[in-house]
């Protein structure tokens, strides 16, 4: 039975000592963009220098040079910024693409979520790519206790309502809880040949109850992408009044 009232909350701050339960400096992993849906889009507009097809209306900017989908930024042909419309196509030419919702960075406040029982799970739904891709790694903040626990990590497809629908792959990982370090998991065991879903979910399930467990940020929750399962039903994390996004990021590699 899932009870999400118990939370271990710490403040992670540069050079600080122990405050309450957990205080440390966390070095976040490098991301290509703060918005998981548009991370690499900002540079696509530079392709507009190859042509002058753009007009003041910007409607045909996508034909200028090799930039393709330059978005509204390509109106003058110089295409300073691609905007969100140019990001998806350009992502398929990237070496890797990071998907995330949390706004956690060094010095941010986090809460380690207590109350999970054995077989309870959390999940995050992410946007895919417009080309075949594979999961490269999962970066997650798990803490509250500095003990080692085994977790089941799973790849799910997503239904029309944005909820995890069916499990596609699963792998087991042993994670040592840490309040001052992100855990990085090799996601390649979760891959499916020819995978090109528009959306997918990564779920992590407790094999034992209690802490260590997932952390959430303090910047507000993104509706419809953070999920909790107790039993057989997935429910939105915001329905449990959680105040932040799960701190779990997925790195994709276009194929």
The percentage of residues in β strands lies in 25-35%
Distance from first to last alpha carbon: 41 Å
Q: If strands are numbered along the chain, what order do they take across the biggest sheet?
A: 8-7-10-4-12-13
Note the overall shape.
Answer: globular
Summarize the main sheet. 6 strands, antiparallel
The assigned CATH architecture of the largest domain is Sandwich
Round the Cα radius of gyration to an integer and report it: 20 Å
CATH topology of the largest domain: Jelly Rolls
Query: What is the number of E strands?
Result: 14
CATH class of the largest domain: Mainly Beta
> Overall pLDDT, averaged?
76
Compute the number of helices.
1
Into how many domains do the coordinates divide?
2
Low-confidence parts: 5-87
Proportion in helices: under 10%
Structural description of this entry:
- The protein is mostly beta strands.
- It has two domains: 7-36 and 98-254, Jelly Rolls (Sandwich), CATH 2.60.120; 41-91, no CATH class.
- The protein contains one helix and 14 strands, in the order βαβββββββββββββ.
- A six-stranded antiparallel β-sheet has the order 8-7-10-4-12-13, with no helix packed on it.
- β12 and β13 (233-236) form a beta hairpin.
- The model is unreliable at 5-87 (pLDDT under 50).
């Amino acid at each position: 039975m899932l009870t999400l009232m118990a939370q271990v909350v710490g403040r992670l701050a540069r050079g600080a000592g122990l405050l309450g339960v957990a205080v440390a400096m966390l070095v976040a992993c490098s991301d290509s963009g703060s918005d998981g849906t548009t991370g690499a889009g900002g540079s696509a507009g530079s392709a507009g220098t190859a042509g002058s097809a753009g007009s003041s209306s910007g409607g045909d900017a996508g034909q200028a040079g090799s930039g393709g989908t330059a978005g509204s930024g390509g109106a003058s042909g110089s295409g300073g910024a691609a905007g969100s419309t140019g990001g998806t196509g350009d992502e398929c030419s990237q070496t890797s693409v990071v998907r995330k919702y949390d706004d956690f960075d060094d010095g941010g406040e986090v809460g380690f979520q207590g109350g999970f029982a054995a077989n309870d799970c959390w999940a995050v739904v992410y946007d895919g790519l417009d080309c075949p891709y594979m999961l490269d790694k999962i970066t997650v903040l798990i803490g509250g206790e500095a003990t080692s626990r085994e977790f089941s990590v799973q790849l799910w497809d997503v239904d029309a309502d944005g909820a995890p629908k069916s499990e596609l792959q699963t792998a087991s990982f042993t994670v040592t809880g840490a309040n001052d370090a992100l855990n990085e998991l090799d996601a390649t065991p979760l891959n499916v040949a020819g995978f090109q879903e528009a959306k997918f979910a990564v779920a992590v399930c407790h094999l034992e109850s209690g802490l260590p467990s997932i952390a959430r940020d303090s910047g507000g929750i993104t509706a419809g992408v953070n999920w909790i399962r107790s039993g057989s039903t997935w429910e939105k994390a915001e329905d449990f009044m959680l105040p932040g996004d799960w701190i779990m990021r997925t790195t994709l590699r276009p194929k």
